[in-house]
Amino acid sequence: MVTGFELFFSILIVAAASTVIGTVGFGFGLVAAPVLLLYLEPQQAVVVLNSLTAIMLAMVLVKNWRQLELRASAGLVLGGIVATPIGVLALNSASPSVLRITIAVVIIFLGLFSLTSVRLPFAERRLAGPTFGFLTSLAVTTIGIGGPLGAIYAIAQRWKPETVRASLALFFFSSDAVAFVLYAATGLVGRDTLANIGVMIPGLIIGFGLASILVNRINDRIFRYAVIAVIVIAGSVMLVREFTGI
Question: CA angle, corner 76, sides to 106 and 142, nearest 5?
Fold first, then answer.
């Protein structure tokens, strides 16, 4: 269980990650994973990340449920639920070192990819929802990161920002809730994991409050670049540490 300065910095990064996901609808793992992986084993970090994400998105969903596009979101949600058991099995059998390296590489790649304005025509097709849902949930359940994939689909639907946030909240909450049950069933949820989730909830509350204030006031461009800079730098540090043993 994290304590002392580790707990302090963990709560700070969870607050920052909650502010990001509460504002744009995704990105919790991208922001929080680099720091939490310094203090937790990879498997526990993924479980903690996804559990905190589910709690945060439950709050976002309660606030934005009127903006949901249920029919358009259904494929995304179903694809995500189908992929969840596969992701849990992969997480349960993965090597901690390989998992850390994979997470670091994905963090850096998705952070840099977020700088682009690439649009994927396939994301606008009927079968895109289940496909993006499956791939996103598989990535999130296994390594705690993959939100931008789901965001690409949601943005391609040309929804309003409120609808994007609500639809992504429904998708990630559904996937993470099913994942938690499977994590527990496969022995990935112990007392320390539950304790770490509990002590970091204040960070969620702080981040949710900040997101509620910032969501209609923030300069999207500056905020996006600042978050991406933190993501890429933190991911690079994590990768260097894994290879050098520092």
Answer: 35
Residue 75 buriedness (CB in 10 A; 0-12 / 13-18 / 19+): buried
Alpha-carbon torsion, ordered 101, 106, 108, 112, to 10 deg: 160
Structural domain total, the chain: 1
* 6 φ/ψ angles, rounded to the nearest 5 degrees: -60, -45
Q: Which residue has the tokens 């997101």?
A: 211
The residue range of the domain holding 141 is: 4-244
Count of C-beta atoms within a 10 Å radius of residue 42: 23
pLDDT, one tens digit per residue, over 14-59 is 999 999 888 877 778 878 988 898 889 889 999 999 999 999 989 8
Instruction: Quickly tell me which residue has 């890429």 as its tokens.
Output: 232
Residue 242 has pLDDT above 80, yes or no: no
Confidence of residue 156 (pLDDT cuts 50, 70, 90): confident
Question: Which tokens go with 208?
Answer: 């949710």
| pTM, full prediction | 0.78
